[in-house]
Amino acid sequence: xxxxxxxxxDESSLCWVLGQFFSGAGYRVDSAGALDEALxxxxxxxxxxxxxxxRLSGTLSEEGLMLADFVRRYAPQTRMVLLTAFATQELTxxxxxxxxxxxxxxxxxxxxxxxxxxxxxxxxxxxx
Length: 128
What we know:
globular, five-stranded parallel sheet
């Protein structure tokens, strides 16, 4: 059974690249370029994993954390990966407190990201 991934990033080219990569690996992929679009998709679909950028609308925004909080409350079984070029220990701590499973630096090599995704989804499958 194919797993569902939601990719959230304001860079449409990154959504496209990640979508092509994960679709080619057998995942079903949706993407969103903004927080409201991601929230709409989360309420109408079911996702095994969300990969989101931290900043979706500007240099100081943190919509990725807002999305993480929503995911934890609305779909607690969904795994969450936060990608950011602005990773700090304080941000990682805040993200994990909101239920983010993994905070990764951006850019992230595709094979490394795929390995993280596989591990997260395998851990979920082992507990169900």
